[in-house]
Amino acid sequence: MNPIQEDTNLETLSPEAEERCLKAAKTAALLAGKRQMESFGETLKIITKGTSIDLVTVVDKECDELIVTSLRKHCDVEHFVTEESFEEGSSIDLSDTWVIDPLDGTTNYAHGFPQFAVSIAYFKAGIPVIGVIYDPFKKEMFYAIKNRGAFLNDEPIFVSKNRVHTLDHALLATGFPYDIAGSSVNNIDHFQRIAPRCHGVRRPGAAALDLAYVACGRLDGFWELKLSVWDVAAGILLVEEAGGKVSNLQGGEIPYADRRIHLIGSNGNALHEEIRDLLALDA
C-alpha cells in the first residue's frame, strides 16, 4: 500500500511519505515554472474573473493542469483544491488535499513584472504539512515540512527574529484586494496607519512570495486581507517552520477553509503584536 494511504488518519505523514510528497510537489512546481518562463514577456490571452483587475491567463490554466497531472502521477491523493478549478460557493475540504495556486501573481506575470510563483501545499486533517513555493524567474525553491524546518534551495532559512524586534525597524509587505474600487474593506486604511510607523512597506503583488520572504528574513512582516487558502497555505507553513508567527488580525488561528482569509505573518517578535494592534482597530 502507498505510504500516503496508510497515514490518511494522521495529522502528519511518515518520513517516507513526507519525502515522496515533497518530491512530487517540487517536480510539479518545476514543470509549471518551466511553462511560465516559456511565455514570460509575451503578449498573452487574458481573461478577467469577476472584476477588470482579477486576471487569469492561458498559462494559469495550463500550469494548473500540469501540476494536477504530475501530482496524480506521483501520489495517490485524489482531492485537489486549485485556484483555477475552484467553483465559487463550494465548500473547501482540507482533510487530505493538495491545495494549489499554479501562478500566484498573475497580474505581475501578465505585465512582464518578474514577481510570481507556483504555490503548492499538502493538507492533512485541516493543516498544511508540506509547502512548496517556486519562483521560476529567480530559480528559488522554497519548501517546508511540518516540524522539520524551512528551506531555500536546500539550505535552512529563518525569520529575522534576531535582527528586527519592533515595528519602527521593520520592512513589511502587503497587498490590496481585487475589489479595491468597490469595497470599503480594501486595506487602504491599514496601509495609511502602518506605513508611517515602519522602515517601509512594499507591495510586490504575490502573497506566496511575500510569505516566503518573511520566512527567509528578506521581509520582517506581511499582512493582507481577503486571501484564499491557495494564496497562503504553503507560505504560512514556511513562516512557522522558519521560526515566525502567523495569525488572523485578532491574533487567532487562520481559518483555512474560509473563502476570505485576513492574516498577519511576521518574525514572531513584538512586531507581530504591534501590527495586530493596529490592524485590529478596524477588524
Topology:
Layout: H1 3-6, H2 15-39, E1 46-48, E2 55-57, H3 58-74, E3 80-82, E4 96-104, H4 106-110, E5 117-124, E6 127-135, E7 140-145, E8 149-152, E9 155-156, E10 171-174, H5 188-194, E11 200-202, H6 207-215, E12 221-227, H7 229-241, E13 245-247, E14 261-266, H8 270-279
Parallel strand pairs: 3-4, 10-11, 10-12
Antiparallel strand pairs: 1-2, 4-5, 5-6, 6-7, 7-8, 8-9, 12-14, 13-14
Helix pairs in contact: 2-3, 6-7
Please, could you describe this protein's structure?
With 283 residues, the protein is of the alpha+beta class. The chain folds into 2 domains: 3-156, Fructose-1,6-Bisphosphatase, Chain A, domain 1 (2-Layer Sandwich); 167-279, D-Maltodextrin-Binding Protein, domain 2, CATH 3.40.190. The protein has 8 helices and 14 strands. Strands 3-4-5-6-7-8-9 form a 7-stranded mixed sheet, with helices on both faces. Strands 11-10-12-14-13 form a 5-stranded mixed sheet, with helices on both faces. Strands 1-2 form a two-stranded antiparallel ribbon.
Gap between N and C termini: 47 Å
Reported by name, the CATH topology of the largest domain is Fructose-1,6-Bisphosphatase, Chain A, domain 1
Order of helices and strands: HHEEHEEHEEEEEEHEHEHEEH
Strand order of the largest sheet: 3-4-5-6-7-8-9
Q: How many domains is the backbone divided into?
A: 2
For the biggest sheet, the summary is:
7 strands, mixed
Number of helices: 8
Name of the CATH architecture of the largest domain: 2-Layer Sandwich
Q: How much β-strand is present in the residues?
A: 15-25%
Average of pLDDT: 90
**Morphology:** globular
The fourth-level CATH homologous superfamily of the largest domain is Fructose-1,6-Bisphosphatase, subunit A, domain 1
Unreliable segments (pLDDT under 50, ≥5 consecutive)?
A: 1-10
| Topology, number of strands | 14
Q: Which class of secondary structure composition applies to the elements? A: alpha+beta
Query: How much helix is in the residues?
Result: 25-40%
Computed CA radius of gyration, to the nearest angstrom = 18 Å
The CATH class of the largest domain turns out to be Alpha Beta
